[in-house]
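ok, trying the design again with the full structure, not the truncated one.
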């Protein structure tokens, strides 16, 4: 049996990073009335990317597994509705 390799770290595209940096900057300005520099924006985004992304990714996997299990349960139920009454 082959050993599974760990998934690579989740990485954002440059466009995604730019958009999120703008969101961080706007948040600080709107919520705290503070300007935040580009370096601080990048540090916060990197922190979120390293610490939060795996949590969110794993939660999404769990959600997908629950959805799949529910659909398999429905399929199992639907399968038995196809049975014909025997004489």
């Amino acid at each position: 049996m082959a050993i599974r390799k760990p998934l690579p770290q989740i990485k954002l595209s440059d466009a995604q990073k730019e958009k999120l940096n703008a969101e961080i900057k706007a948040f600080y300005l709107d919520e705290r009335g503070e300007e935040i520099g580009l370096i601080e924006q990048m540090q916060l985004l990197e922190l979120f990317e390293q610490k939060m992304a795996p949590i969110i990714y794993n939660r999404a996997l769990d959600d997908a597994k629950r959805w799949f299990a529910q659909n398999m349960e429905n399929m199992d139920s639907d399968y038995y509705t196809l049975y014909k009454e025997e004489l």
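Keeping the full-length input from now on. Residues 2 and 8 are 18 Å apart (CA to CA).
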